[in-house]
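Exercise: predict the fold of this chain.
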Amino acid sequence: MKDLDRKLIIEQLDRKFKKLAVLKDLDISSKGWINAIRTGKNMSLVQLAKRLNITSVSAKEIEQREADKGITLRKLLEVAEALDCRFVYGFIPNEGSLEKTIDKRAYQVATDIVLKTSHTMKLEDQENSGRRIKKAIKDRAGKIKNEMPKYLWD
């Protein structure tokens, strides 16, 4: 993939992540969304089951599977439709954006590379100053970020 294509993809994803950021601290009921919405609508398990063409026992099992994080996306889509909702899922980078995630990882990898080289030079009595090491890490991180080598994620 070309660098410009990758950069465009990262920018587009980061715009989407920015919209999702409001959800980052959203608390989800321990019983799950299905139970919360059903209960909020004052809908019984029997009524939900009827909308899904299943038994009330099966509807209860679906709620339990969601709470246990063992439900499929397909089933969530079906239940959302039965609850007259739109099902949405996504990922939100821990760093807030994909670019920040890449920056952080490039800096970590660059630090490992530079410090390993610096250690070897120290053993040969050619130690660099702290300022020179910091600059080398910054330069290497920039190079890694621009090239996006596969080893970045090892």
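Check your answer against the key: The two ends are 19 Å apart (CA to CA).
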